[in-house]
User: Which sequence fits this backbone?
């Protein structure tokens, strides 16, 4: 082709395929150590010990929990900037120490970026900083072992979730973040409008207020993708979504965020609670077992006392709402009309020594779309799954598939589209939502939900 | 355990493991057909042909592009509601027709949900509805072959993207949707605040305006996760994100959405454009090749004329900005100070007969964080990748890693955290952003971007 030749002639066309990564990530070096081979690594110095003939540096590059020990002979030219926190490029020979530890004997060490603690670097070597302190430095905190390990586990858990659903032939759907539905009863919402007044002016139409100008309707951040999933499920079968959802609540507990991730699945042709519960229990056990296999070192780095929970080998307990109330009552805890509270949730989990499905909920405590029970029309076929540490981690239900019953409970005409799903080629479906951050709390033993994701947002906090 | 026995006694404890799916998805039936075996399927009737002794129904369940032909002997009891669009549960024996076509000879057919076209169902059998028409019925459109096929391809593409980065040891990071950064120069933003006035009143503090009450700062929907990725990259190495981003622009082209998905990757220790370009070219070719392997039938369903693009076997072309301008100039097209426009982008692609990297951009046309070229300080090490049909599909750059140079260009004090990333253990990085929907347009030949995702949002449109 003429033009390509032209490019080659003028020297601007180069062979992309010839560029490759020369250095190794530390995870690979540790996985298949090639003793005696020249090896290049790049990463950050996590600690330094100066001894008589050698300097020992522990270097990590974020690819795994472990550090690689670098042995630096003192006769090498050494940059003054080689300190804790600095970024380095090291070439050397891989070797085993007398004690059998893998180490890299450096031939060359190059400091890429210095790190002067006195210039304001907030972390110190060989110090375990409390999470509340680390959280003040969101932009730097992925450099701490604690947060880096959590983010690797978070990545692993999302991967296992996608793998689980791929095996079961579910289709991954990107449900929308912006929505004109505000009435799912799932909590308070954020509204959205353009920042730029010029845009609003230019788009203004008679009879519209500011809030509705851009989209033609008031627009909110999603609180759940479920209703949208149900629409797709009725054309494509089993589907799921894993994405951000939002609550504009003024709650500052260790269990709440303004922006968090939900896994939601909608199961086609699902006509029994047993089937729904089976999917949830299978999925949860799969996530826990797989992540313990793939990220054991990270789990220990996050919490040394982490161990396989007993309940992984047990069946989850199923408890009707009324019986749960009796259990709590017998312990002197009164369930009000608002339902089971957080303390009571944890009491039930403790009582059962396993995750508990609370089923057969009173209709008035649950959302309009939940299916009326066939054996008691004051109840709905809904479930909450309660787990240790966090209480509720999953909510789910069969969906009301009777057109007339749904119509009677529909909270707004804006949801007529949802009703219409039942009119044409309708099928029974059921589904659930699982809070990703709470799963991470239970799996890793993370007391505060703000440490389960890279950039937490909660009331008065939206840094960066 | 006492309590569990109690549950068993009261009949509320059931064996979860015993429930399993009895029917088969059509994708599995077609993949490994078990001729002669009793088979159950569930799905929707896509067409019906009544003949002398049999009714022929084509049934699809969303699991694949293909339909399964059902042969219904007329002596079976047949529900009047068995029509186009109805949902059905069929049991029968798998067989091969005289012509060798796989078919299911029905023993039993059960209509789960009727579909009466006269009641307002917008689609008709054996009719190819234009996408503009289908788009009016967002809640029902996944029942059309066109949209279902696109959503399967979208799922496949995201899976291939995750697989690509998993192989390369990148860590998947959930960058935030809510952000207090508004000044990346990437376009107009949406602002976010609680809908509930009571919440705002309760949280109001002296000196704050409404916009800032909830988070303590004005808060926007993200236009890019890049700056956040850069923070994580400097603790954990190679990272990427794949999630929704937003633009509050009043543009209604076939290439723009208010909410769309971006894949963004940040490459640690990346110090050359060649390396950056290699990753982009490899990734794109991987996506195209893998998706053509996994979803060939879907690609044909979307566009019968779809074929493997010639450029998959070619090196992408690289063209410095100034040369691109000369090429356009020679064709009588003038490049203004605002840069290359859409028509000119497509002209360049056509001229090169392949995707083109435009490199060596004038500094004033690009963002503050892009690295000043070492050979010409009026230029930055940035790239746009132009592709057929859509023009720009990827934008990327090396990042300015010189503290002083970055400080001089920093557009706002709110980004001091970003500057500080260069202060402690800094490393060279480079990265790019790729529009998922535009990739789908090129891959599938989809003229309008609104058909590449399940629930498109654009000015005056935020249905559901």
Assistant:
């Amino acid at each position: 082709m003429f033009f390509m030749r032209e490019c080659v002639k003028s020297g601007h066309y180069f062979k992309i395929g010839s560029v490759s990564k020369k250095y190794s990530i530390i995870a690979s070096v540790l996985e298949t150590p090639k003793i005696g081979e020249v090896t290049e690594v790049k990463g950050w110095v996590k600690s330094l010990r100066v001894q008589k003939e050698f300097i020992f540096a522990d270097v990590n590059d974020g690819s795994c929990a472990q550090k690689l020990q670098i042995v630096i002979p003192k006769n090498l030219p050494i940059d003054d900037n080689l300190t804790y926190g600095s970024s380095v490029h090291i070439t050397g020979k891989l070797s085993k120490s007398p004690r059998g530890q893998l180490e890299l004997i450096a031939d060359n060490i190059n400091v890429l970026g210095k790190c002067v603690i006195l210039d304001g670097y907030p972390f110190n070597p060989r110090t375990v900083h409390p999470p509340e302190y680390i959280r003040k430095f969101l932009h730097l905190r992925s450099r701490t072992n604690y947060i880096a390990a959590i983010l690797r586990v978070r990545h692993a858990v999302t991967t296992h979730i996608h793998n689980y659903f791929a095996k079961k032939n579910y289709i991954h759907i990107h449900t929308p973040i912006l929505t004109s539905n505000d009435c799912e009863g799932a909590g308070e919402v954020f509204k959205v409008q353009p920042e730029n007044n010029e845009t609003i002016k230019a788009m203004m139409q008679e009879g519209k207020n500011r809030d509705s100008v851009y989209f033609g309707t008031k627009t909110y951040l999603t609180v759940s993708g479920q209703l949208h999933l149900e629409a797709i499920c009725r054309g494509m079968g089993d589907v799921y979504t894993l994405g951000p959802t939002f609550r504009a609540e003024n709650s500052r507990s260790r269990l709440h965020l303004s922006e968090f991730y939900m896994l939601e699945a909608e199961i086609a042709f699902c006509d029994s609670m047993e089937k729904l519960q089976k999917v949830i229990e299978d999925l949860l056990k799969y996530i826990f077992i797989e992540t313990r296999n793939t990220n054991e070192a990270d789990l220990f780095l996050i919490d040394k006392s982490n161990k396989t929970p007993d309940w992984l080998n047990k069946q989850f307990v199923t408890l009707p709402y009324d019986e749960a109330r009796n259990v709590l009552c017998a312990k002197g805890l009164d369930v009000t009309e608002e339902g089971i509270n957080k303390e009571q949730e944890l009491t039930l989990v403790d009582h059962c020594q396993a995750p508990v499905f609370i089923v057969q909920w009173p209709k008035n405590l649950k959302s309009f779309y939940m299916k009326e029970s066939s054996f008691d029309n004051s109840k709905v076929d809904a479930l909450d799954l309660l787990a240790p540490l966090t209480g509720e981690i999953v909510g789910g239900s069969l969906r009301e598939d009777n057109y007339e019953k749904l119509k009677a409970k529909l909270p707004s005409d804006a949801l007529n589209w949802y009703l219409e799903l039942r009119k044409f080629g309708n099928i029974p479906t059921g589904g659930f939502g699982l809070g990703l951050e709470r799963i991470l709390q239970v799996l890793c033993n993370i007391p505060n939900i703000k440490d389960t994701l890279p950039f937490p947002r909660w009331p008065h906090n939206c840094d960066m």
